[in-house]
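User: Design a sequence. Structure:
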């Protein structure tokens, strides 16, 4: 798979604030990436660095195959990292035509991209009459005018009402389905869960997890177990390679996994070791529980 962006050991300090700590990850063509983390975790700083508007302290990043300098590489990137700003008294179409003029893009693109974001019917309305959601959609259309390889969005649904949030998420999914790589920063788990295929979880500038969204959900499945003799059960469990950690609560053992283990295989293994269970449930954390666990104090 083609690599769009490689980030290696990126570090950023604002004076005494260590905003980004030794962050490394890769973005491959065609995937939808979420940078997920609470406020202040370094998401916007990371995006600012790769878009060349924030200076890094150390580390490196490389766009595409690294043969283009950042300035030229960024011509193949569409990004919205600030509140959308257009001329209030110009129409949607006029605003986008102006962007075309500046970036030397054919005017044909204006209607095409207004269509993508569902604003074609409102092309003659002045920007100042737009709702926040419409403004955000116009910003997305604007970022798409040059048919970028990758679209970068910082908290794309912040401040929007539920309908506006849904529209933006549907548009992002549509753009992704048409082959554009996407990188979005969000503090919302369900947003990442709904929209992204891959996730980088940040906490206080540090990466806690990178990988697929499915992976974060399945990675740490766990069992709830109970038998007549929990201490004997525990002894057997402790010898299983796939077991990461065992907690006991209310007479049940919570068995956290670091490798896949099916309930049937576990049950059989325990039975062979003379353990009869009277309770066995396999659970998978939602991304939300995972995230809360990852970002809780540790
Ligand atoms: P996020 O986007 O995840 O909310 P930021 O990247 O905006 O996080 O911020 C990360 C940390 O860096 C925070 O502690 C924030 O206060 C600090 N920070 C961000 N921008 C600046 C700046 N221009 N000057 C000083 N500190 C900053
Ligand atoms: Mg931010």
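Assistant: Done.
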């Amino acid at each position: 798979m083609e690599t769009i962006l490689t980030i290696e050991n990126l570090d950023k300090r604002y004076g005494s604030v260590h905003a980004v700590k030794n962050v490394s990850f890769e973005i491959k063509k065609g995937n939808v990436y979420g940078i997920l983390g609470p406020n202040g975790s370094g998401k916007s700083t990371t995006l600012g660095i790769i878009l060349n508007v924030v200076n890094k302290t150390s580390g490196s990043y490389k766009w595409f195959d690294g043969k283009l300098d950042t300035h030229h590489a960024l011509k193949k990137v569409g990004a919205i990292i600030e509140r959308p700003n257009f001329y209030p008294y110009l129409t949607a179409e006029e605003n986008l035509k102006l962007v075309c003029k500046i970036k030397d893009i054919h005017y044909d693109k204006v209607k095409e991209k207004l269509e993508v974001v569902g604003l074609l019917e409102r092309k003659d309305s002045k920007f100042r009459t737009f709702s926040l959601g419409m403004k955000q959609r116009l910003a997305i259309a604007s970022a798409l005018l040059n048919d970028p390889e990758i679209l970068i969005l910082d908290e794309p649904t912040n401040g929007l009402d539920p309908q506006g949030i849904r529209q933006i998420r549907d548009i992002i999914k549509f753009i992704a389905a048409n082959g554009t790589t996407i990188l979005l920063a969000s503090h919302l788990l369900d947003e990442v869960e709904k929209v992204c295929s891959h996730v980088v979880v940040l906490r206080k500038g540090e990466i806690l997890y990178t990988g697929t969204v499915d992976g974060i959900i399945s990675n740490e499945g766990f069992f709830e177990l109970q038998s007549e003799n929990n201490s004997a059960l525990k002894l057997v469990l402790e010898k299983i390679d796939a077991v990461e950690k065992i907690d006991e609560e209310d007479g049940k053992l919570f068995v956290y996994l670091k490798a896949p283990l099916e309930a049937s295989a576990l049950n059989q293994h325990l039975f062979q070791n003379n353990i009869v269970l009277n309770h066995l449930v396999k659970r998978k954390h939602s991304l939300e529980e995972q995230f809360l666990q990852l970002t809780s104090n540790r």
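The chain has a mean pLDDT of 92. Residues 14, 17, 19, 37, 39-45 surround adenosine-5'-diphosphate (ligand 1) (CB under 6 Å).
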